[in-house]
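BUG: 3D viewer hangs when loading the predicted structure for this chain

Environment: internal workstation, default settings.
Expected: structure renders.
Actual: progress bar stalls at 90%.

Input used:
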Amino acid sequence: MVIFENLIQQSSCVMTIPFTQHFDARLPAVARPVRITSFYDAQVFTRRWVIRDKDPTLKVLLRKLEKANSAVLIEEAMGTFKQELSVRALLPTETL
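C-alpha cells produced before the viewer hung:
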C-alpha cells in the first residue's frame, strides 16, 4: 500500500514544471501578468494569445505545445514559448 501511495505522489507531478521554473507572462493590453505554473497553463495562455493576436507564428507555437508528448518535446516547446514571449517583450527579463 505504501509503495502504491508513493507511486501516485510521484506520477501526480509528471506534467508540471518544477517550482523553480514558474514565471509570469503578460498578454498584450492586459494589465496583470499571468502566472505560468505548468505546461497546461502555457497551453491555455497560448490559446488565448492566438485568439487575441491572430498571428500565424503563434498558431505554429500552439500546435507545437499541443503535440508535445515527451519530456524533451515539452522542454523544447516551453523554450520556444518563453522565446516568443521575450521577443514581444511580454516576459520579464529575469525569467530568461
